[in-house]
Write a structure and sequence with these properties.
- By secondary structure, this protein is α/β, with parallel strands linked by helices.
- It has a single domain, classed as Vaccinia Virus protein VP39 (Rossmann fold).
- 35% of the residues lie in helices and 22% in strands.
- The protein is built from six helices and seven strands; from the N terminus they run ααββαββαβααββ.
- It has a seven-stranded mixed sheet with strand order 3-2-1-4-5-7-6, sandwiched between helices.
- The chain binds S-adenosylmethionine.
- S-adenosylmethionine (SAM) binds next to loops.
Length: 234
């Protein structure tokens, strides 16, 4: 099947919101959260990443130091925002890790079908404007027995916090580069044709309450159902 070209993907990436300032502020904003458990959650999640690995929405590269060089044969890091992509390239150099940085949105990946063994998405399904399309596209490039490793903040089951997240969604979206604090990512994955195994739930103590809880897990394409069929934003 034909897939988007690199040029088409880059042109689409240019439409994704982002700025030099928000790219520079990203790591300092996450500093406390990383030290209070996020970094450890990344480490545990990525210990399973192997073979040909695709990370989508890789941001400034907070995951790169956690990849196991003995397991990863090829690393492709997709990040649409040119400012974050530049920081990501620097970070790869700092840890001396080989990786290809590609500017593309999650919904338009310039790769063939069933190329990757592992897909990694952390704190990104909350931000993509089209989670159903993005999940479907990731499913397209993942091998049939491939695994999607994810770590995402999701809408809380606690009634007061879920209601607060619903109320603050619009404001949070404006201050946090499009992030949807009340997204039901796990439900979207399941309804989109993925079998999801949640491996860790963190209260994310030093993250803002609107970005809690944070769930980690793995998802595999359900046999006989193309990922993306049926996924709907709640
Ligand atoms: C909250 S940051 C997370 C960055 C990184 N994954 C991490 O764990 O720190 C969200 C990332 O998603 C990226 N993003 C936004 N829209 C996107 C899209 N349509 N497709 C792929 N990535 C997107 C942003 O540029 C940003 O780097």
């Amino acid at each position: 099947m034909s897939h988007p070209s690199l040029q088409e993907a880059e042109a689409e990436a240019d439409r994704v919101p982002g700025s030099a300032l928000s790219a520079r502020l990203y790591d300092p904003i996450l500093w406390w959260g990383e030290r209070s458990g996020l970094s450890r959650s990344r480490e545990v999640l990525l210990a399973e990443a192997g073979g040909a690995v695709l990370e989508v929405g890789a941001g400034t590269g907070l995951n790169v130091r956690h990849y196991d060089r003995d397991l990863v044969e090829r690393l492709v890091l997709v990040e649409p925002d040119r400012h974050k992509a530049a920081i990501l390239r620097d970070r790869l150099g700092q840890v001396n890790l080989e990786g290809e940085v590609v500017r593309a949105p999650a919904s338009m990946l310039p790769f063939g079908d069933e190329v990757f063994d592992t897909a990694v998405v952390t704190l990104c399904f909350c931000t993509v404007p089209d989670p159903d399309e993005s999940m479907k596209e990731i499913g397209r490039v993942l091998k049939p027995d491939g695994v999607l490793l994810f770590m995402e903040h999701i809408r809380s089951d606690r009634s007061w916090l879920g209601a607060l997240q619903d109320r603050l969604r619009g404001l949070w979206e404006r201050v946090a580069d499009g992030c949807q604090c009340n997204r039901r990512t796990v439900e979207l994955l399941r309804s989109g044709g993925w079998d999801v195994d949640i491996t860790h739930v963190s209260d994310g103590a030093l993250m803002p309450p609107v970005a809690r809880p944070i769930v980690s897990g793995r998802a595999r394409k359900r046999q006989g159902l193309a990922p993306g069929n049926g996924a709907r934003e709640a």
